[in-house]
Amino acid sequence: MARPQCSRCCRPVSHCLCPLIPDLANHTRLLILQHRSEAGHALNTARLAALGLRNAQLWIGEHFDGLEALLEAEAGGAALLFPGEQDAPRGNSAPIKPRLLVVPDGSWRKARKILHLHPCLGKLPRLCLSSGQISRYRLRKAPMAGALSTIEAVTLALNMLEAPARFDDLLRPFEALIEGQIAAMGEETFLRNHGDQP
């Protein structure tokens, strides 16, 4: 028999994260495009990010009807949070200040598939985070150096775009989620499977 589930955070009621989810006002609109395979995942950080921000939407699927029209309506005011060659200006140039930040969510393969299925995303300027970031996501082995969970990437991006405002409180439910998963598996199992990570 399935455990009762919180309708908001989609966690078991006994492990509901809602009391830890902040209510943060962000000026940069956030659109998270979550691959449908991630929606039911126990460690769904995209949902936590969307719930903690007043100006955020979470679209779930693979083909997103209306995405191209939405980006056209933004008339150059959108950017894509994803590594790539079209980085935001660096050095003495002012960083881009998008009105809308689009964030693909899924495994690297699934996120790239979303980009492939929606060529309009490839035309957006890319906002790339500084290299050398270390993820707090201790339950997954990063596929590459600097790989972050969606909620970590969103937090860093908003901290950069909306400084001096800070969005670190977004990470509170994420950290509780990680600690809860470690407690459920037991410290010994965690160290055996994940103890070699930085």
From TrEMBL:
Instruction: Provide the GO MF annotations for this entry.
Output: tRNA-uridine aminocarboxypropyltransferase activity
Class of the enzyme per the UniProt entry, highest EC level: transferase
Query: Transferase among the record's keywords?
Result: yes
Supply the InterPro entries for this chain: DTW, DTWD2/TAPT
Q: Which SMART domains match?
A: DTW
Family membership: Belongs to the TDD superfamily. DTWD2 family.
The name on file for this protein is tRNA-uridine aminocarboxypropyltransferase
From which source organism is this entry?
Answer: Stutzerimonas kirkiae
